[in-house]
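User: Teach me something about this protein's shape.
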Amino acid sequence: GGEIMYYVRKMKLGKTEQLDSLSLAAGELYTKTLVGFWRVVRKKNIWLKPSSLMRLYNSNKLHAHSADAVVQSFCNSLKSWKERRKQDKNAKPPYKKRKYYKIQWKSSAIKIKDNKLILSNGKGNKPLIINWEYNLPKLVEIGWDGKQYELRAIYQEEQNNKPLDNKVAGVDLGEIHLAVAYDGNTSYIINGRLLRSKRQYQNKLKAKLSSMLDKKKKGSKRWKKILKSKQKQLIKIQNQINDILHKQTTKLVSTLYKSGVQTVVIGDVRNIRQNIDYGTTANQRLHQWVFGKVRQMIQYKAERLGMKVVLQDEKYTSQTCPMCNNKHKPNNRNYICKCGFEYHRDAVGAINIRKKYLGENQVVGVMASPIGIRYEPNMQCSL
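Assistant: First, the predicted structure itself:
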């Protein structure tokens, strides 16, 4: 068999009464599950399994499988918190109640008839009907994008071009370059310059609009007008940032996949923000560093293509020479060692992460120049 590929088709739906009531029903169910789960933990010290939670909590306003999906998403948050807690003792579990929540329809609740997508909401409830001229999706999700409801239709397709190689790639997450990958032959660099300029603009905008708000009386008409404008502008720039991240990580993962990579080893930088103090500007940059988002994107996109993803401790990887193993801090963007080895500083981190995972001692051969992956507006967004 071939590899399974996933594609996402997005569609804006505006805001309707039916969508509001479905989203409210999902929010109500999520909150009921969350409150009920923690109550049982508190009173009986029992952690209910997902199967028990799905039997206990459901909604008569949603399709049975859509209700299950809401309960499962709470269980997934719980699972990722348990994993996170191993590294970070201060990690918080899912505890926020939701008024609204995303709704998912699995294939049992999706059908197409007369160019209409019909999403079933269970017995006695009106289905959601959307004009549709595409194929039948595997899964449909509807969520709020900050302005309106957005439909995400997920398609599954079998690919028969599985790579024959079994290469391992090391990935170093950085602040100047979002990520650098090395697959044993070539380094690939995701350029982070555009993202940094968006971040700088975001910070200036926040400061400017906050100072404008401070000059107005809280709750006044002008204050409300500025607040509304601030929210609108910040949502827009956040969407642009997400777009850049999605497109560049997709390009990196599909490039590694095509080059025959089957294992992606990512440098684990999850504790970098704890107890840091490098001065105001550097602190702000580090706290806004989106490495968690980039790592998750690379991870789920690689796993969708059947690649294995491993987290590897990345201590001293950008300071160690891959050729002679001597340690020294590079002063500029190039890493130059006394032994004669010279290469791009961030790519050195990726080489060493890969080496650490494989347990190799030396880099052999001439290093090829890194290949840059820049953002282009028309790049593919999801794998």
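Now, about its shape. The two ends are 19 Å apart (CA to CA). Residues 33 and 214 are 40 Å apart (CA to CA). If you'd like, I can walk through any region in more detail.
User: That's plenty for now, thanks!
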